[in-house]
Amino acid sequence: MARSALVTGGSRGIGLAIARELAAGGDDVAVTYRSGEPPEGLLGVHCDITDTAQVDAAFTRVEEEQGPVEVLVANAGITKDQLMLLMSEDDFTSVLDTNLTGTFRVVKRAVRGMLRRRRGGRIVLISSVVGLMGSGGQVNYAASKAGLVGFGRSLARELGSRGITVNIVAPGFIETDMTAALPEERAAEIKKNVPLGRFGSTGEIAAAVRFLTGENAGYITGAVIPVDGGLGMGH
Q1: Distance (Å, rounded) from C-alpha 145 to C-alpha 183?
Q2: What is the CA 197 to chain-centroid distance, rounded?
């Protein structure tokens, strides 16, 4: 039976790959997007997750179109990289407001519906290897992604008795527009530090998410699943 799934930041890159993977598994999938056009074949809902009213409106539309959200993948995020001494307070707080507090807004809205349905649910938060091992020039991003681990594990303890699982996927360097823009020398240097010697694919992240949202992962909650070629070696 098709479930109602929502992927935030699902119009491109990792988010789009996750949305397509869930749809291929038979779910009805909606994605939020902030700019550009929604992807073909999926329900696109314009939403800025820094705005609680927009989050509520997005969920209301998804509920009307495909039913209460049973599977939530919180993927939307931004970067504003800079060395800490040169980083503005706005660059720090805006990244946390999107990546961490934005996830809080989305998850809170989803959980309300899951609890009303009393049929459990699946929540997956997309963190990053950077949140586990740190990265120069990314104190804001790393803090936000590390925060998702504590957020997710605390929520897993709160919601476990209701049959709702909460897990965290921590991607490493993945082949996206962002890594494609890296100078060749920098890309080669990064790959030297990855035990598997390559960047990952968006499909590999999507496969991990599909597993965590499936019936075979019903006894997994509060887990951090690294999909990083061995770069971070867990947490």
Answers
A1: 25
A2: 24
* Identity of the residue numbered 195: P
Summarised one tens digit per residue, pLDDT across range 85-125 is 999 999 999 999 999 999 999 999 999 999 999 899 999 99
User: CA 176, CA 4: separation in Å to the nearest integer?
Assistant: 27
Strand, helix or coil for residue 224? strand
Domain boundaries, the chain: 4-227
pTM for this predicted structure: 0.96
Residues designated catalytic: 141
Task: Burial-class residue 141 by CB neighbours within 10 Å (0-12, 13-18, 19+).
Answer: buried
Domain 4-227 sits in CATH at 3.40.50.720
| End-to-end CA gap in the chain | 35
Do the strands 4-7 and 28-33 form a parallel or antiparallel pair, or are they unpaired?
A: parallel
